[in-house]
Amino acid sequence: MSFTLATWNINSVRLREGLVARLMREEAPDVLCLQECKSPVEKIPLEAFQALGYGHIVARGQKGYNGVAILSKLPIMDAGGEDFAQLGHARHVAARLESGVTIHNFYVPAGGDVPDRDQNEKFGQKLDYLTEMRDYFHWQRPDRAILVGDLNIAPREDDVWNHKSLLKIVSHTPIEVAHLAAAQEAGAWVDVTRKDIPEGQLYSWWSYRAADWDGADKGRRLDHVWATPDIAGAAHSSRILRGARGWEQPSDHVPVFATFDL
Q1: What is the CA radius of gyration of the chain?
Q2: What pLDDT digit, counting tens, does each position of 188-216 carry?
Q3: Are strands 205-206 and 190-191 parallel, antiparallel or unpaired?
Q4: Are 70 and 115 in contact (CB under 8 A)?
Q5: Residue 117's CB: how many other CB atoms inside 10 A?
Q6: Which residue(s) pair with 225 in the sheet?
Q7: For the chain, which residues make up each domain, given as ranges?
Q8: What dihedral angle (degrees, nearest 10) is formed by the CA atoms of 147, 9, 218, 216?
Q9: pLDDT tens for each residue of 166-195
Q10: Model pLDDT, residue 240
Q11: Is 105:92 a contact under the CB 8 Å cutoff?
Q12: Which CATH architecture has domain 2-261?
């Protein structure tokens, strides 16, 4: 079975219902993982998405903040969700395909603006969240699994527009990169995007603060697709839909795709 998966921080699924529908019509991924839905599950516009073929959903939501959803053309089963760092936030949900493949959808805390946990509680929460991700995958070693989402960290030098300039900026600090690497290593996760596109600058997020986001091109790769080693070799055709950043009233993130032949 071959299926294409996309992950996208939509920054309000109700505000950007039309953009989600556009992606479904024009790109038609078999599975679409959304983050920062900012909606209780019962208020996600499911009827519109079902009309486009996405008849299956597994989600965790809350009013106005956070929220993760997996919308699928393929049958999926709810495989749970963890409250890492006990924040009480809807930041993780998992679904299982009929093939037995489990998809984890994450929205890791952004971490605020100051990269110091003593001065900034949100940064400490981010590090704690990543530590609990690490421990979870260490004790429950995943297999036949895919992990996607807005992990809010650009780990590589070529995942940001200027490595040296961003070393003290939240999302690219060495301590965050180390924490993400530890979580990745604990599950032996393979970075599918970089497996397929090993070299060159690659971004999935551009700040709203830049009036000319395209011309300035000061991006970061915050959105990721990982897979366990037993299925990572079946992944291919990774791509980032950069053009979605220029859609009307866009999210500051764009969709990231990968196809799996399983």
Answers
A1: 17
A2: 999 999 999 999 999 999 999 988 999 99
A3: unpaired
A4: no
A5: 17
A6: 148
A7: 2-261
A8: 140
A9: 999 999 999 999 999 999 999 999 999 999
A10: 98
A11: yes
A12: 4-Layer Sandwich (3.60)
